[in-house]
Structure prediction request, 121 residues.
Amino acid sequence: MSSPGIILRARNVQKHFGALVALGGIDLDVRAGEVVAIIGPSGSGKSTLVRCIHQLEPIDGGALYLRDDLLGVKRRGKVLERLGDHELSRQRARMGMVFQQFNLFGHYTVLENLIEGPVQV
Prediction:
């Protein structure tokens, strides 16, 4: 399904908060070894996109894939069902996320903050 080397794929990802369109059809491919920066003004959906990728916010449309695995949902025939907490946790364990200005240890270096989660898990 995906091109060789693509580890994260977003297709037509949509997220709404009531009438507010936070993500209006995002497409993104991230290849192995690639570093991606998401930039934009405050309120443009950067954090929402990252939270959706990590399944902290369910998407309202489109699809997210980690390698070729559909994130956050599973197929039952032609129907997509949201994963349960245990299955979501298993998917989340395959990727990392660092919140901006949140839950970082001031006495740690940047590297120590980044590796704390994987070291503990």
Q: What stands out?
A: The radius of gyration is 15 Å. DSSP finds three helices and six strands in the chain. The first strand starts at residue 6 and ends at 17.
